[in-house]
Amino acid sequence: MKYxxxxxxxVAGDGACFxxxxxAILKLEGDPIPKGLTFKVTGNSRNKxxxxxxxxxxKWLRNNLDYRIKGIERTIAQEIESEIxxxxxxxxxxxxxxxxxxxxxxxxxxGQIEIxxxxxxLNRNIRVYIHNKGKFSNVGLGYEIKxxxxxxxxxxxxxxxxxxxxGLHHFEPLYPKVKAVKDVKKIKKNKKxxxxxxxxxxxxxxxxxxxxxxxxxxxxxTSVRQPVKxxxxxxxxxxxxxxxxxxx
Length: 248
What we know:
Elements: E1 6-8, H1 17-29, H2 46-63, H3 76-85, H4 96-103, H5 112-122, E2 126-132, E3 135-137, E4 142-143, E5 154-158, E6 171-176, H6 177-195
Helix pairs in contact: 1-2, 2-4, 2-5
């Protein structure tokens, strides 16, 4: 695989870079967390999600110490004991239980054992690469539990081999560009649909006919007109004056 085929993102180098990287990828994908997990992701910041992923990781390791790792047929407990015996950890970490307590701390650097856990928790392949001359090389980190799928697998970058100083071993997220393009198209399509105000047709209520016929007919109101006074067409008669007779 070519380095140019991926978007290489950066995360904080605070000891939790592995969980920050997984959280960053899940956030880009929209939090596709498998059902049944005990924590809710939607709305949380990437940093909070990284903390929750660490808790789930340690919880899974505690509950699956007898889990046989595909390909090497060793248990999780045996892998932890081997890590302790190799002297790669603090001298105070002498038992499996102390290892899990140590891994519960926010700044405890995760490795191959935690990759086993997260791969099973998310039910996804985790593929880890180093960058060398424009190409990716695998140095043994990672875990595959099913067929490879560039659209589903989780890709991580690691600077293994460059330094052994504390804080400089570092995981970072890699996001396939082909997947990023598909995500952008999907977002644009959803936005296009959401901007249209789709109005549902209003259903007209059927007019209900009266079941009973009215027994009384409606009385029409008649307008009462006042009588008009008729004007007389006859001319007024002039009264004649009556002369009184005067006695002489």
